[in-house]
Amino acid sequence: MLRAQLENIPYEKTVREKILTFLKEDVQAKGLKGGAIARFSILSSGYLKDEPLITQASSEELRDYLVKAIKSASPFEKFPERLKKSEESFHLEVLYE
Q1: Cα dihedral 84/73/61/89 (nearest 10)
Q2: Tens-place pLDDT, residues 5-33
């Protein structure tokens, strides 16, 4: 049932929302403010290919929480049929004010 519901939602959006769910818990609990940018790749199986790369972060704490959120969100859903790739790269920017 979940798989059928996800077919109508862009895969990138489901990845982003899952990560932000994990990140929001930590950021709100600590009252953190600032931004960060992450790059990471997901295999067609839904697993992370490598360690997420944080290319910019306003603090080490936010950097650590973003890495933790990406890892905690994995594995993601397997790629939908329309994504005929073995992996996909993602760029995620977050900002908390």
Answers
A1: 0
A2: 444 468 999 999 999 999 988 888 888 89
**Torsion sign, CA atoms 3, 26, 16, 60:** negative
| 36 close to 97: Cβ distance less than 8 angstroms | no
DSSP the chain: -HHHHHTTS-HHHHHHHHHHHHHHHHHHHHT--EEEEEEEEEETTSSBSS--EEEEES-HHHHHHHHHHHHHH-S-PPPPTT---SEEEEEEEEEE-
Res 83: pLDDT = 81
